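Lecture 7 notes: from sequence to structure.

We start with a single chain of 145 residues. Read the sequence below before looking at the structure.
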Amino acid sequence: MTDTASKKYKFNTATGRTGAKKYEDGETPPSPNGRVPRISKLMALAIRFETLMRDSTVENQAEIARLAMISRARVTQIMNLLNLAPELQEEILFLPRVMSGKDRVHLKGVLPISVKPIWSNQTKLWKTFEIGDNDRSVVKSSDPS
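Now the structure, written as tokens:
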């Protein structure tokens, strides 16, 4: 009579940054519902671009544009998000996930706030930020300078 012992393990696979598969103990973690808003992704990208320039990985925004295959104007738009007050940057990074439909906050609505040089004025404008009729974010017409 032969006795065979077997043991069952639960594991999941995940793909790492390099594309290599990683095996992890336990069941596959549930994926979060919804998607990250585009403006949050752009804010994170601006922070990443700033880090690359600070660490001298890239020389300037023109090099970022060339490497990312986007226009220099687009890089400037993204980098202008760094002109926002730190608490606004944080709020943008942690906006709630979009469950369906269009994003509620758009770059087009945030850029006018980022050109204001005084952070307290930016914060006032952010508080007047409202959702437009077409799910586009707009700032009310009474802009403090």
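The beta strands are 11-15, 21-25, 129-131, 137-139. Keep this in mind for problem set 3.
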